[in-house]
Automatic annotation (TrEMBL):
It is found in: Cytoplasm; Nucleus. Residues 43-194 form the Cyclin-D1-binding protein 1-like N-terminal domain. Belongs to the CCNDBP1 family. Keywords: Cell cycle, Cytoplasm, Nucleus. Coiled coil: none annotated. Residues 203-215 have a biased composition (Acidic residues). Residues 203-224 are annotated as: Disordered. Residues 210-321 form the Cyclin-D1-binding protein 1-like C-terminal domain. GO terms for cellular component: cytoplasm; nucleus. It comes from Zygosaccharomyces mellis. This is Uncharacterized protein.
Length: 348
């Protein structure tokens, strides 16, 4: 019976673990799988649970003390596990060969990671069982046995969660993270307004001079220039404090709509979701760049220097508003809210 177990181990290793080691391998899978009375995410959840259950049973029959007594049961469970891996991989083309533009790339990237994690845990399991077969005197600690099973459990749990939450919740998670980052920026602004100061310019001339060479004659002028710069900076950042609050409001409102299942009608294209995912991340990056440059400003502060960054930021926001308008075109209340936000933010 050990030969049968070895055969199943070799099959799992060669047909699955070694054949699919990176995302491009998974994307190249072809199958004729068709679903009737179900959908991709439902089947993915089922298969995650089935794979986990088989891994649990394999872990039980692989107890070191009774390993050789359980070879028949182990052979059966490995065969079932191999079949469930096959069905899992056969489902993937329904996601990757997406002619109807249903799945966003950020979701598929998460799917790649979970499936590869499952195969990685399966590979470790194969190695562990292989070693036990080749050395009947081998003392195998229970912790070692549970390590590979734990890897498979973790992969199956994360795969189930991915399917359970779906791409809308993943997008919502990304937007919530962006809201948190924007809130951090607002806190930095509040701290700066409470204690305004010029940024460090790391002037090398300061390192070359000495105290006895400085007569202090320009200190009054410098202080005056610094104070004037701080006043301009304060006016600028207070104006942008309001703008950034508006940006956070836009993002948080969108995140709330996602959490309320508003967009989950199956009509929103995956490419649109990806566009929103990328845009909201780019908005936060531009906000961060704008304020980072601001905090580094010295007495030569000039608002004009920030116009290129502001232009990029506003172009991103225009794109987001355009997409949200289209998504909410059948909801008069949400459409009105977006219109009011647009007019208020871009009124200046």
């Amino acid at each position: 019976m050990s030969e049968e177990v070895q055969k199943h181990i070799d099959t799992i290793r060669s047909q699955f673990c070694e054949s699919y080691q990176q995302a491009s391998d998974l994307h190249g899978i072809t199958s004729e799988t068709q679903l009737q009375g179900s959908d991709e995410l439902t089947e993915l959840k089922k298969l995650a649970q089935i794979n986990r259950a088989h891994a649990t049973k394999i872990g039980i029959v692989c107890q070191p003390q009774r390993f050789y007594e359980n070879l028949n049961a182990l052979s059966k469970e490995l065969h079932e596990f191999s079949s469930s891996l096959f069905y899992t991989l056969s489902l993937l083309p329904l996601f990757y060969h997406d002619e109807r533009d249903r799945w966003a790339p950020f979701f598929l990237k998460g799917l790649d990671s979970k499936i590869l994690g499952l195969l990685s845990g399966s590979s470790v399991l194969c190695n562990d069982i292989d070693a036990m077969l080749k050395d009947d005197q081998r003392e195998k600690e229970d912790a070692d046995r549970l390590r590979s099973i734990g890897m498979i459990w973790a992969a199956c749990d994360s795969l189930y969660e991915l399917a359970q939450r779906g791409q809308f919740h993943l997008l919502g998670d990304g937007v919530h993270q962006s809201c948190a980052l924007v809130q951090d920026v607002l806190q930095d602004i509040e701290q700066w307004i409470a204690n305004p100061e010029l940024g460090n310019d790391f002037d090398l001339d300061d390192l070359e001079g000495s105290e006895d060479e400085q007569d202090g004659s320009g200190s009054d002028v410098d202080n005056g220039n610094d104070e004037a710069a701080l006043q301009k900076m304060k006016a600028f950042v207070q104006d942008w404090q309001n703008n950034i609050k508006m940006i956070k409001l836009l993002l948080s409102s969108f995140a709330k709509s996602i959490s309320a299942n508003f967009y989950k009608d199956g009509k929103t294209k995956g490419s649109i979701l990806q566009k929103l995912y990328d845009l909201q991340k780019d908005v936060v990056a531009q906000v961060d760049e704008l304020l980072s440059d601001f905090f580094m400003s010295d007495a030569s502060f000039d608002p004009v220097e920030f116009e290129p960054t502001i232009k990029k930021l506003n172009e991103l926001l225009i794109q987001i508003v355009k997409i949200l308008r289209n998504l909410n075109k059948d909801d008069s209340k949400k459409s009105k809210w977006i219109e009011v936000w647009d007019n208020k933010y871009f009124a200046k």
